[in-house]
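Let's practice the habit of predicting before peeking. Look at the sequence and jot down your guess about where helices and strands might fall. Then scroll down.
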Amino acid sequence: MTQASLRQSGIQQASERLIAILRDACNSQSEPATETASILRFETSVDTCNPLAWLAAHNGQPAIYWRDRDGICETAGLEVADVITVSESVDFSRVMSDIHARLRNATGTVRYFGGFRFDAPHGSDNCHEAWQPFGTARFVLPRFELTRNQAGWKLACNVLSDEMNRESVDKIALLLENVASTSAQVSLQNSAFGKRHDNPGKEQWNRTIQSALDMLAEGQTSKIVLARQSGMEFTSQLNPWVLLQRLRDASVRCSLFGIQPDRQTACIGATPERLYRRNGNLIESEAVAGTRPRGDNEAHDIELQNALCHSDKDIREHRFVVDSLRDSLETFCSKLNMSNGPEILKLASVQHLRTTFSGQLKEGIGDAELLASLHPTPAVGGYPKENARREISRLEHFDRGWYSGPIGWVSTNAAEFAVAIRSGLVHNNRLTLFSGAGIVEGSTPDNEWDEIETKMSHFLKAVTDS
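Done guessing? Here is the structure:
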């Protein structure tokens, strides 16, 4: 990997203003903190910054990163003001109730960032060591945030109300001085890696796909999504935020995400698939399934696009996702609109079929109900869902962890979750990439292997290009 130099400016001055705001608020509060700690948010503008440079300079501290697919909103968070973790099987209702209870008395635009394992509702008896710091679910309220929207950049500090005393504020101010004053000159030299290891390998993959096709022929499922992992060991410990910077620079029409729970481990990715976005009672979702690579030139690209649009196999694969999402959303929405037929979603290395949904949620429908019903979509699990989940557990001989799970954020009146595909797990000096392919009648082991290679190629190119 070639050297990457990331710089920041403006954060030092903003931190000084923010510390003054925080101290003034502490000195002026007239009532003692209540037992139920509400959340106070303090903000000031920032002239210029590079959020991933900021995270890269402080690699090893608990951190999060999120940039929406449209590139309008972006947040980098450092340190932890509050965290919600679950280590056993997840009840979505319990997790969302816990988050919203903490947000109830929050001031300002406060968001919890995090996600769930792919198999979160069922738990895992085979959680790999590298995934253990993430838990089954983990949502973090960052202590400090660099956040951007259409109005510009802000530096923010989130404080629980029972921390609004001089001793706690002094500690927070000192921590802010440290994260603001450290030089953000970060570089990653060309770091060689040893032989790539695929799990499963090609021969095992062929046997696995044949087993899946036999199962489909018996009528147990109509579609199953099977994944592979590819591991690479580098000569030095990896900085996940430098990797994500490179991935961001090379990505189009993708949500960028990163979760770093401890010094050794991070999950990063660039996903094209939105599970849903909710603003009040308005919801958007989409089906993304069916794949072809991008062409070498415009004519070749159009040729591949036309092949995708007329492929019976890809259209059937896409239809399973559309039907599943429509069934769920029709249950939850008083009004629902669906795009007329699939459109083409063009990314850097692949193109997909996509169908979009928008609707108005019925009263009483919230994030818990949406997560429980929509996840996993047939784009990452299969159809019918429960049968496919059991077969994935039988046929895949590795831990998906947070790969293909819901990842995103929750605020008082809004939420957004993407599907954590096209992702990688960084653990010390090892990077493990994950990607999958939908298996339906007509699939072949070679074609599905090549499809996953194409999906992984974007991440691999960003990580390994000199």
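How did you do? The two ends are 5 Å apart (CA to CA).
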